[in-house]
Amino acid sequence: MPPIVVTIDGPAGTGKSTVALLVAERLGFQFLNTGAMYRAVAWHCLQHAVNLQDAMSSTAVAANLSFHIVDHKMQVDGVDLSQEFRDDTISQAASVIAAHSEIRSILVERQRQLAEEMSLVSEGRDQGTIVFPNATKKFFLTARPEVRAQRRYDDLRGHSDVSYEQILKTQQERDLRDMTRSIAPLQPAPDAEVVDSSDLELDEVVNLLVQKVEQAQQAAN
């Protein structure tokens, strides 16, 4: 049986990373955090003083990184950088990196290679539209802006002194940038199921998505 791919797209702060991880665990799949791949490129660029706006230089960084999934965690050149990626500066830098078509092409190819090796719940912003158009099941997770900002604030508490107001402003700027970029703009795939998590508990969202995936698998068989 070939590997199965489930995609979960959506803007920042919807809880899609946590949801995707829990859904993957329930289904016995691996979790592909594609945002971590863009953050890895951004982090390496910042560490080596590479100009994020310089497409050629930042693309060279991306081309030289290796990505592997170990126990649902993305390892970059054999190292788990998940703690470094929590910094909001890295998130903003990743959004700049994601606008470079050359980098997107490299990372999309890496994502598809991973999907050839294992069944995945792949989370990001263009998984159902660009990366895995033939995924078994596609979701687009959303939530009200103020709810998303509060979730991000709670997530960063103790790791950053950024305020709720700053997060909301940054989130709005990123949403605009992600939705209006010419390469793979943030939008639901035509066949994606849109799920608003604003008024749902985490376990309710996870249960809903697992149920939908199992139904899709049964229909496919």
From TrEMBL:
GO biological process: pyrimidine nucleotide metabolic process
Reaction it catalyzes: dCMP + ATP = dCDP + ADP; CMP + ATP = CDP + ADP
Domain Cytidylate kinase: 6-214
Chain residues that bind ATP: 10-18
Domain of life according to the entry: Bacteria
Subcellular location(s) per record: Cytoplasm
A cellular component annotation (GO) from this entry: cytoplasm
Pfam families: Cytidylate_kin
Keyword set, alphabetical order: ATP-binding, Cytoplasm, Kinase, Nucleotide-binding, Transferase
One GO molecular-function entry: dCMP kinase activity
The enzyme's E.C. designation: 2.7.4.25
Broad class of enzyme this protein falls into: transferase
The family this protein is said to belong to: Belongs to the cytidylate kinase family. Type 1 subfamily.
Record's protein name: Cytidylate kinase
Organism: Rubinisphaera italica
